[in-house]
Each structure stands twice: as structure tokens, then as C-alpha cells.
């Protein structure tokens, strides 16, 4: 029996088509896995089901009846429960209150019925007895719990909705093995009771362990639905990658071979910190080292930590042959390290200020300037912007008057006046147009040719394959695989990314 | 046409138009209100407010809900310190200036440390500091006669210095030029706007955000201290709550001048116009016999009305 059916659902944000044609059918009593790479439209599909995004087109059927989901409340009313990946808990409330938050039991429709609340929460807390860890109790404050325990509360909250259809978006990312085992037992029990479950995970072993069928989404389109029992990991990955996945990255587009005698620009030894552990690598002068893998596997955390904006627990960083432990970005910049974030709005753009003031901060710091004479600064700023083909009417217009791509060029230009030794690129092309991307990569290659050591983390595989000499694939905070030479293929990149951590 | 409109909607132009209108209104209510001598007198009062507002201005520009509510207390404290140090003698002026600046910088430093290291919101930190200062003033004044201004200081504030214009107005003009240059032509000024517009981006671009913020509160304290010293010269002797009104009026002057309370947007030229405007308003209210409490009500209402005009989209847009 079909629990949920989506037919040709689509969604566009402005000119970008997030979901072209989403089809999905979840049966009662199955765990249905949803797979797709970053930006494939998988999360848009989930948001449509959960009611937080309205589709432009297409049909949704619950129990074979066409429905319209107008918002999260309407989704809940129609029997859809969701586990949110970004934790949606109230930190200052207790575990039991959080579990029952969506539907607090009430006396006289006004006062919270404490006894009923305790009883109801206890049912779900008992499900994880023995694996929930120290300090986990019904009256513990959620804010005092460990990340894995908070994730358990989030799971309990989703279970407490008792919805016939449950969506779990990466529910296991913080859990340990025993917790995952227990969670899977619970899911199997729900299956027996005829619930439909949508399950999203990037761990192949988990998908094989719990999933019945898998639907693969690529480029905003549902590719196919397979029985997991009749397929293997290789086939699934190949379907996610699409046609040309086995072809090695074209050699013509790869940068010049690095001369080893140039020495290392940046050396990282056994570095651990918040979000990454035991990472070691070396970037030679003139090399572009790629960081690959799924989103949030420690790539950004590592780059920010090197730049002094994140915490490092143990390990060693060297720039050239000098010890480099930047206490702050200011310290890192002084010692020749540069960082470009993909999150321009948060990390880069000084909004409302003129373009020129968005380029000069690094120059002020490295040249220890006190006076900012516009005419003198213009002579330094204009060439930096022109080398990236930045389009602007005047240096004194506010940066907000530029397009996203041109804003990012301005942010990158600030590193070009006083050249750094090491350039850290943290998904630098997020949300910028194709021509700006082309300009950006032309510049990055030129900088590499001039002897900079460059690290490029990109969520777009084509950028990594086309520009990086080597690619380190991150999984769960550490490097799971290094791809060099002809190994640099889309297929290998995906396989390494989706391997069990 | 649209460029004419946008010119007319600039806060400083609005303020200047209001200045002319209010002067005209004052002249109607009380002939002689807009005479040259009277305007000079108003400008002396405006420069006291303008100097306090200079410090308020940089703190607000620095963003993160930056505001300095303790300026009124610092003005009072500085006036009392100055009066007691100089005791009516010209020889005491230099030590008095030094003592006032040190006191202003010290309380600014405390504000800055509280806001950066202890992460206390500026509104709470400086309000608390205002309370501390007010208490301190009561304690200091117990049994001690309030000091007296040195004759030279009084002359500087009230008597013509060059071209018939008193020294304090010249001082205000110099502060205006220095502030304008600092904000537009120095690295420090650019960094104030940077932390006010996007603190995190500024941090990632190597701006010493905490040091900057501490410096801004110290600057604010020192400007308030200078104003307190000049206020002593204006009134001759000091009393405990002499500077009280400057907390509210300095904020109104800054907002009137078009500086966004959200930070990162605005400048001092507008604030100067705003300060002058407020003083004219004060003069008119006095002319029509509205007492101090009535004036405070009008000022409070003015701030709220201003926020309604500028507030939508302008003041709070980050």
C-alpha cells in the first residue's frame, strides 16, 4: 500500500531550478532511502514533503488521496513527522518537555498536564535505555547534553509525533554504533507496524543495513528507484554520478606538474580540533590541493582552524619551515596566510561600505598603514580588481551595488595586493555565476604558477577534478582517501565520500 | 528629479532645513531669537553637546548595539573634578585637563572591557556605569564645596576669541574637521565602519575588533570629559547632575544626523547639525516657558519620532 506518492514535483528559486521533476513513492512498512549529491534537490524534496517549501508544480498523494500541504502544521496534521538535521531543540527546557513540545498534553485546555507529559516522554526515553549515556534523564536540560544525546532527543521527538510517515534527515551523524543499532531496531519495529519511513544518510553501510528501497536523485531529477537487496554500492554511486563518472579528470585542464624541489608551503601534522581529527598533509609551493567529500565533513572547520578562526586541540602546522599557530585571523594574515570563505555575507562583505574599503583591510594590516589616502590606495586596489575582470563603475560605490560574483571577486582581490604564501579557499564559488567562476579559477591557477600553496575545498566535484593536483576526500572529520593522477575521477570521489567513516 | 528628492532626503539636509525653520519660528515667537549674538550663544551650548555627541557617534558607528549611556555621568564627574582641581585659578587648567581626560578614559576603558571581555551588552554596561557614576558623584560631593572655573576657561567658553567667535566654537570646528578626516581618511576610521557593518567579516580580515571597541568607548569617555570641563567654564561652578541631560540629547543628535543605531552608517557632520538643531529646539522651548521636565519629554518624543522616520529601512538595515 502506498503511504506517500510524489508525482512530477518541481520547485524553482528565481531562475535556478532546485527540483526539476521529483518522483517518489513510499510504501507502508518500508524504509525508503533517498540519495543524491550536494545540491541534487534531495533536501528540497524533503522540505516539500514537510511543508516548509511550497512546490511550483506536481501532485502529492497520501494514502492514494491527493493532498495540498500548506505548511509545517498542515504536514503534521496529515500525518508527516520529521527529524530535523539542524537541531530544533529548546536548550533551556528538559528532555521530556522537548520530546512532547509539539503537542503538550493539557488539562482544561490551558494548563500543562505534568503527569501525562512525564508518562508520554518516558515511553520514548525507555526506547533508548542503556545506550543514551551518562547524565541522560527525563529532567536533564537539553543544553547540558552531549551532541549525540541531543540527537537522541531529536529522534525521540520525531518518534513522539507517532506520525504514519516519518522523515529522518541524517539522523545518525552524531550517534555511536550502539545508539545506531538501537535506533535501527526501533525503525524495524515501526516498519512491522506499517509506518512509512524516509531515510537520508551518507553512510553506505547504514543504508545497506536498514534500507529496503533507494530512490536516487541527480540534478534535480529522480533517476530511478531500486531494491537495495538487488543492487550494490557501486551501482548506486554510478547512478548518482551519472554518465561520465569513470572518466579521469582531463589532463589538459589540470595545472602544471609541481616541482617537488620547491618545498612545502604548508605542512599539517596530526591536527585535531573541533570538527576534524588527526589530519596530516603537505601542500607544495605551486600546488593546488583539493579537499573533497560531502558537506560538513571537517573541511571548512579545518581551513578555519588553520586561519586562526577555529580551535585546534593538538597537532602542528608549519608555513614554509616555521611553526605556525595563528591565534587569530589577524595573526594568520600577518604571517602570510589567506582565507576566502564561500559565505560572503557572513565572512567577507563589509556591507554598505565602498568597494575600495572592502579591498583594503588586508593591505592596511600587512603594510601597517595608519593613513588611508584614497588616491594612493586606488592605485593599488584597481589593478587587483582588474586582474580578476571585476566589473564596477567606481571604487567608491557601495559593494552592495555589485552582483554576487563580482562581490566575491572584490573579496578575493583584497588578498592580491600583498601576496600571501598560502591561500585557503573554503568553497569560494558558492552562489556565483559561471563566468565569475571561470575568472576565479584562471586566477587561482596563475597564483599557483607564481608559487603560492593553495588549498581548494569545493562542494562542486567538477571544480576539484578540473583544478586540483591531488584531492583529499574527507569523511567524518578525517581524510579517508587521497586521489592522485588518474585516480581523480568522479566515481572515486563519490565512492570515497560515501564510504563508511 | 529623483536625484533632487534623494538629496532632500539626506539626514543632514533635513537637519539643516529644520534648523532654518526653527530659527524662523523662534524669531516669530520672540523677536531677537535669530539675531547674530543669540545664534552665537546657541552655538556655544551646541558645541558642548556636539563634543559629547562626537564620542557617542563613534561608539554607535562601531555597531553591535553600541551606545554609551554613561556620557552624562562622565560629563558631571569631569565638571566636578575640573572645578576642584583648578579651584578658580588659571594655573590649575592644565592639571585639570589631564585629570579629566584620565577619568574619562578610565571609565571608557571599564565600559569597553565590560562589553568585550565580559560580553555585557553596551546598553546594560553603560547604563550600569551611569548608575555607578551618579552614586560616585553624591559621595564625592559630600561636604566638599564644589569647585570653581578658572577665569581663562570661562573666557575661552563664553568670550570671543577670534573674529568675535568664542574659543569653544573654534574647538568644536576643529573636532569636526578631525572627526571627518579620521572617519574618511584613516585606517582607524575605516575599521570603525568595518566592525559596525559586519563585525565577523572585519575579524576575518584581521581587524582587531576587541581593541577597536575598547578604544571607541575610551574616545567616548574622553570627549565627554572635555565637554564636562567646558561645561564648568560655561556655568562657572559645578553641581552634581550638571551633565545629566547629555545622555539622551547626545543620542538624539547622532540619530538626527543620520547615523544608524545599527552601526556602520553615518558620520559626524550630520551629528553636528543635529546637535545645533536640538539646542535651537531647547531654546524655543525655554522661550515659551516650558521647564526642564517638559523639555525632556519633548526630546524623548523627538527621538521616537526620528526613529519612525529613519528607522524603517534606514537605521536598522544592517
UniProtKB/TrEMBL annotation, chain A:
Gene Ontology molecular-function annotations: ATP binding; ATP hydrolysis activity
InterPro entries, per this entry? Answer: AAA+_ATPase, ABC_carbohydrate_import_ATPase, ABC_transporter-like_ATP-bd, ABC_transporter-like_CS, P-loop_NTPase
Where in this chain does the record put each ABC transporter domain? 4-244, 258-501
Keywords of this entry: ATP-binding, Membrane, Nucleotide-binding, Repeat, Sugar transport, Transport
Q: Which Pfam families match?
A: ABC_tran (PF00005)
Give the similarity note.
Belongs to the ABC transporter superfamily.
- Under what name is this protein listed? ATP-binding cassette domain-containing protein
